[in-house]
Structures are given as structure tokens and as C-alpha cells.
Amino acid sequence: MKQYTLDYSRPRPKSWARGQRPNRRMRRAFRQVFPLLCGLLFGIALVGFLRMRSEVQFHYKRYQKQVIQYDSLLEAKMEADRQLNTLRTRLLER
């Protein structure tokens, strides 16, 4: 006599009849890996932003130092030109 088993589980979709079973491990792994990948991408973007910001600040400070140096050199040149002009006028007056 053939033994019968009673199956009280949920009705199975038609795709199971064709041999395609749902891959529960993949779903679980996807649920675990997706937030990890999103967090990793967010972390990379944050690090890139902070690094770019620090580089911009560094270059801005360097630019300001160069502006100050240029201004002081320009002022020194103008002072030397003034002294040269006064010396020329004194020499021409004699």
C-alpha cells in the first residue's frame, strides 16, 4: 500500500513546477550585502568630499600667502622706484 503525505504548506507558484525554485539564500545575502555596499559607497563619497575640502583649504591658504608676498614685493619695488626717481631729480637739478 502506498503511503500518502499531507502537505499543509502554502500553495507553490507555477514557476516551481518548471523547476525554478526561489533562491532564499540569495535573497538573504542580498538583504545583508546591499546595506553594506550602500554604506561603503557613502563612506567613499564622504572621504572624497572631506579630502577635496581640505585640499581646497590648503590651496586657498597657499594662494593667500602668495598674494601677501606679491603685495610686499610690489610695495618694495614701488618704494625703490620712488627713491630712484628722487635720486634722478636731485642729479638733474645739479
Description:
The structure is a single chain. About 80% of the residues lie in helices and about 0% in strands. The chain has helices at about 15, 25-94. The model has no long low-confidence stretch (mean pLDDT about 85). By secondary structure, the protein is mostly helical.
Topology, element by element:
Elements: H1 14-17, H2 24-93
Given as residue ranges, the uncertain stretches (5+ residues, pLDDT < 50) are: none
Distance between the termini: 141 Å
Shape assignment: rod-shaped
Number of strands: 0
How would you state the average pLDDT, rounded? 87
Sheet of most strands:
none
> How large is the radius of gyration?
40 Å
Helical stretch tally: 2
Task: Pick out its properties.
94 residues, mainly alpha, 2 helices
Summarize the structure.
Helices cover 79% and strands 0% of the residues.
